Amino acid sequence: MTSGYTRTWRTARQLALTPVQANSALARRPYDLRHAGVSMRLNAGVPATQVAEWAGHSVEVLLKIYAKCVDGHDHVWLGMVDRALGD
Predict the structure, then answer these.
(1) Domain tally, the chain
(2) Which GO terms of the molecular function aspect are on file (predicted)?
(3) pLDDT of residue 14
(4) In whole numbers, what is the pLDDT of the chain averaged over residues?
(5) What is the pLDDT of residues 25-57, one digit of tens each?
């Protein structure tokens, strides 16, 4: 049996998304939006301590769940280290 919340979420997806998007996994569950938001903040370079506070997680839990979501930013972090060293 589905809850009223689930039925409302499904209806909202149908109204807000294109038919192709609605038939995809995009925002299939409300939790998917939370996951996307936390991942986006980490990938934007917000410190994990701040993201954890906003998400209501400990840093340990945040990094356990989301560490694999942060990818492809080695050049950013290395640039930050170089600037800190004065290079």
Answers:
(1) 1
(2) DNA binding
(3) 92
(4) 88
(5) 888 888 888 888 998 898 888 999 999 999 999
Q: What is the pTM of this model?
A: 0.63
Closest CA to 60 of 71, 49, 44, 72: 49
Cα(33)–Cα(55) distance, integer angstroms? 12
* Residue span of the structural domain in which 66 resides: 4-84
The span from the CA of 62 to the CA of 32, in Å, is 15
The CA distance from 54 to 37, in Å, is 10
* DSSP letter assigned to residue 71: -
Instruction: Tokens 């192709």: give the residue.
Output: 20
Predicted local confidence at residue 67, as pLDDT: 78
Crossing angle of helices 59-66 and 48-55, rounded to 10°: 100
Mean pLDDT for 56-71 is 86
